[in-house]
Every structure is written in structure tokens, then in C-alpha cells.
Amino acid sequence: MSFLARHRIILPVVSLAVLLAATFYMQPRAMSYFGLNLLFNLAVPIALATIAQMLIIMVNDIDLSLGAFVSLAACVTATSLNDAPLLGALILLGLILSYALLGAVIHMLELPAIVVTLGMSFVWGGIALFILPAPGGVSPDWLRTLMTVKPPIAPMAVVAAVIIAAVTHLLIMRSGIGTVLRGVGGNARSVARAGWSLVRLKALAYGLAGLFGVLAGMALVGLTTSADANIALRYTLLSIAGVILGGGEFIGGRVSPTGAVIGALTLTLAASFLSFMRLSPDWQIGAQGAILILVLTARLIFSRKGAEE
Amino acid sequence: MKLFSKPWLWSWLAAAAAFAVTAALTSGRGGGELAYAALSFGAFAAIVGLGQMLVITLGPGNVDLSIPATMTLAATLALKAMGSQPGTAFLGLGIALAVGLGAGLANYALIYLLRLPPIIATLAASLVYQSVAIWSNRGLRIKPPTGLADFATGRFLGLPNVAWVGLALAIVVWVILERSVWGRWLLATGQNLRVARLAGIPVELVRAATYISVALFSALAGYLLASFSGGAALNMGQEYLLMSIAVVVIGGSSIAGGDSNVPGVWGAALFMFLVVSMLNSYGAVAGLRNVLTGTIIIAIVIAASTRRNRA
């Protein structure tokens, strides 16, 4: 195994650094507290959603409903949580529990996660439309304050990203239960033979994903101050891309929380970078795709020569 | 083989039930119109569904997320080239298929040369296609030539022309899958890539042909849909991403690959249209309609999987 293959985290770190350097070169004024804050403004909800997706990918599933779920959480936050905090909190808790239940059902009935989450994306989207038929709602004041706080030295988004990465790293990479959860993706049968209940583990992984999905929705509302039923639909694809950019694999429980957060930061930065390049708006989406391809091409270095898929 | 063990049966039963429930509301009147509409709109879902089915058959991790972007790009460029001039229908078709061929080749190049997971490769590529579509037309709506529009909305022997196209494609796909060496190669590749390769099957050629086919199908669907609905729109493909995956799975194909089901795709495509019109005719609001659609999809998947486990 080469040095790079063992330290998969190098790729996301280098991609982020290169993109950041390019941004600073294009726009030196971005190299400030205020500039960084603008660049990474929307990174926090994307990072949280990416962690949620990573938790699902960790157990060899994929979540196509995450964008709709984050939108729903945002709608609840902007309505119930603001008007009746207790009821709102209960609804959000219910959402997390239903995610855990979903994980258990998917495992018990041996359903393909990709299809069930596809169906759930209609359900979450429908409920969100029910709660908020037209864009609106108000962010709770405390959430607004939390998301716009100006900590010393580094801007809020950067501090939050470091905290998210540290907490999830401890949880997934360092703790006992995190190791077992990764084991479900690596070799579910051996985890079951070792006496663990796979149903409970899957429910836990999905429940944690639900928790991070809800947090993503709350963070998003704190930043945008209002919500609508489609506010975060693009998070489904963004979060999958973020996990892979961060060095994760679709199967085998090989994920990296730190990498996922860095992947989310890279995706956010790519959007800001393109607006600095004064690229015609027609090409912004395409250029984002091109950057994605470019960064992933670097993965080639990491796969051993002639390795079988 | 018993009738009940046919995996495509469930999607057809579900479609029939949705049809009956909707028709019951109008006490039988309008049943013909409903069936006609279902065949017209179902045809587009069936065409992209057939393409997605071939890709999903390739095995776990294979899915084409660029279908909507390919549809939009092919339709936009084709309609721009035709410029509403009469007699240009085949020129437009040629351009749409050329776009499909290009998109398929590009998708596969990313997957093979860069070893990207297909989900990510097609996702990233679709962003580029979308940009090209925006740049080439800025969302201006160009009308299709009259003759082409008449064809797309017309009927033959009582059935919509687009349904005939979808039906013909389904038969071609079925024959190729069930009766040709290519089909066997595709199924074998989906069941076990490594074994297929060791058995001497040119797996990379099979994968390339599959990714090109799905892009061609998407391009054709986009071309027909734009002609059907009076012009290309930038968001015209949007609903077909989830739709294409849903019809494959409801249709009884295995999401794990290696086991595909052509008749089921058509049944599921009809069902997906009928269930929405059923909920519409009972006056369900958009939110409730989505919740019920999602619940029904999951219920069918659960029904299909318990049947499979017992078998």
C-alpha cells in the first residue's frame, strides 16, 4: 500500500487548499475574516447534511431523500419551532425517530434503501408542502443569533466545521460503537456473529443520520431566516458528492467524517470561487460539475495500479 | 412457471387497481380518455425507464443520474436546429440521437477512464450538460415543426403514437435481453462482474454499450416530449430522474442488478401516471398527493420483496 492510499485524507485536504489558494489569488480581499465568512457562509448546513449522508453510506445504503428531509426539518424549524417551541421540538424528535424506524424496516424486510428513500423523498416533500405551502416562516431568534455569531480569530462557519468534524470523528472513528457501525458496512455478518443486533445498529445509524439531517435543516433556517418546501432539495446530490470527495466509498464502511466535512467545504467554496471568476451564469453549474470531475480525477493517484474493482 | 411468480404482475395489477379506482369516481365515463392519457404520458416514463433498467441491470452502484440533463440537452439542441421549419423532423431526431450518443460516451469515459463511481460520474456530467443546454438556448421556447408536433400528439389504431414508439422499444429491448448473446452478457455482468470477465465476456464493452443506450433512450424521450408538449423547457426532464428509478423497481427488476424485467417497466410507468390522476380526481392537494405517492411506492416495494422472500 502506498503512502497516499493509507492516508486518504490528504486528497480532500489538498483539493480544498488548492481551491482556496486559487480563490485568494483571484480575489485577495477574500483573505480576511469577513471574506472567509462570505465564502463559507452556507457550508454549515451542507456539512451537516454530508455527515448525515455519510452515516447512511457507512452502512452500505444510500439516501435519496436527504434533500427533502432537510427541507422538511427547515420548514418545521421556521414554523412550529418558532411559534410553539415545545411542539416543534417534539416534531423534530419524531422525525429523527422515524428515520431510525426507517433504518430498522429497511433491514428487517431486506428492502433496497435506494428505493425506499426514493419513496420517502415524496413523503417528506409532501409533508413539507403541507406545513408550508408557500415560502415563508421565521427563524427562531436564538437560532438566528447562533448562526450569525462572530467568534474571535475565525468566522462562525469555519469554527462550526471544525467542531462538526471533531465531534463526528470522535463518534465514528474513535468510539467503540462507531467502529461497530463501520463494521456493519464492512462485514455485516461478522458483526452479527459477534453478538450485535444488526437491526438496532442500522436503526442507530439511520437515527444519527436523521439527527444530523434535522440539524442541517435548523442551521439552514438560521442562515436564511425563512424556509420553503424545496429549500434544500439539491442537498441530496451535494451530500453524496461531498462524501465521495472526502474519500469515502459507497461500500465497505470506508468513510471519513473529517473528509466529508472538508468535501462539503470544497463544494461550497467551488460555488463561491466561480462567482469570483465572473463566469457567465450559464456556465456556473457546468463549471461546478467540471471541478467535481477534476477533484475526483485525483482519486486515480490513490487507487493502486491495475487494482481490480 | 406460475403466473403469480412473474415479477411484472404486481405493477400491472397496481396500474389496473389505480385505473379502476379513478374510473369508479366518474362511474366509468371518461375511462377511454384516462387510458389514452396514461399511455401517452406513460410512454415517456417507459422509454427512460427501459434505459435506466439496462443500467441498473449492470449491478450494484450502476445508475444514470444524467437522464434529465440528457433529455433537456437533446431536446433543446434538436428544436433549435429544426427552428420550427417543416420537413426537419428527421434532422432533429438525428441531432437528438447524436447528443445522446455523445452524452453516453462522455458518461462512460468518466466511469472507465477516471474510475469514478457511476452515480458521481453521471451526476457531475449532468451538471455540464445542463449548462450547455442553458447556454445554447437561454430557456427560449422554440415550437416544434407542425408535422412533428402532430405526430407526437397523434394516434394510430386508437393508440397514441408515442406509446407505439415506447412499445416498439420495449419489444426490441426484450428481444435483445432475452434472446441475444448481448442480453446474456449484460445479465451475466450484472450478476457477477468478476465471474463474467473471467468467463471471457467483454464486460467493458457491455458496460459502454449500456451507458450509451440509456443516453440514446433519454435523448429520444426528450425529443418526443418536447415535440409533444410544444417546445423544450430547461426543467422538462426534472421529474424523470426519480421516475426512471421508480418504474424500474416497481416493475420488478432487481435493484441489485442482473435481473431485469421489461413488461414490468411499462406497467409501472402506467401506474405512476394513474396513481397521480387517481389522487387528483379525488381532490388531494399537492402535499397529500406526494405523501400518498411515496407511501404507495414503498408499499409496492415491500409487497414485492416479501413475495420474493417467500418464493
TrEMBL record, chain A:
This is Ribose transport system permease protein. GO terms for molecular function: transmembrane transporter activity. It is found in: Cell membrane. GO terms for cellular component: plasma membrane. The chain crosses the membrane at residues 9-26, 38-57, 87-106, 113-133, 153-172, 203-225, 231-251, 258-277, 283-302. Keywords: Cell inner membrane, Cell membrane, Membrane, Transmembrane, Transmembrane helix, Transport. Its main location: membrane. It holds the Pfam family BPD_transp_2. It comes from the Bacteria. It is a multi-pass membrane protein.
TrEMBL record, chain B:
It is found in: Cell membrane. Keywords: Cell membrane, Membrane, Signal, Transmembrane, Transmembrane helix. It is a multi-pass membrane protein. Its main location: membrane. It holds the Pfam family BPD_transp_2. The chain crosses the membrane at residues 34-56, 89-110, 116-135, 156-177, 208-228, 240-258, 264-283, 290-306. GO terms for cellular component: plasma membrane. Residues 1-20 form the signal peptide. One of its GO terms (molecular function) is transmembrane transporter activity. The keyword Zinc does not apply. This is Monosaccharide ABC transporter membrane protein (CUT2 family).
